[in-house]
Amino acid sequence: MDLVSIVIPVYKVEEYLERCIASTVGQTYQNIEIILIDDGSPDRCPEICDAWARKDSRITVVHQANGGVSSARNAGLKISSGSYVLQLDSDDYIAPNTVATLVSV
Prior knowledge:
Elements: E1 4-10, H1 14-25, E2 32-38, H2 45-55, E3 59-63, H3 69-79, E4 84-87, H4 98-104
Parallel strand pairs: 1-2, 1-4, 2-3
């Protein structure tokens, strides 16, 4: 099974972040790494990211000074090690079979 990297830039999305992360953790395709890039978020997002990383070893969190969404995405790409990369916005969520479907195509 190929490793799939899911890169999620995070900035001021405290209201949506739990659902986003939960939807990635709950994927039916289990061989994933989830890379959360805290782009200097001033709300509780950094703490939420760290709490999830403590619960799931597939999650890596990078905290960086705010540089914008492109900077955050690029930071995630630099450390990703998957054969495939899925970019996900932190105010979105995905169906449980999203990664499995994408890998099977």
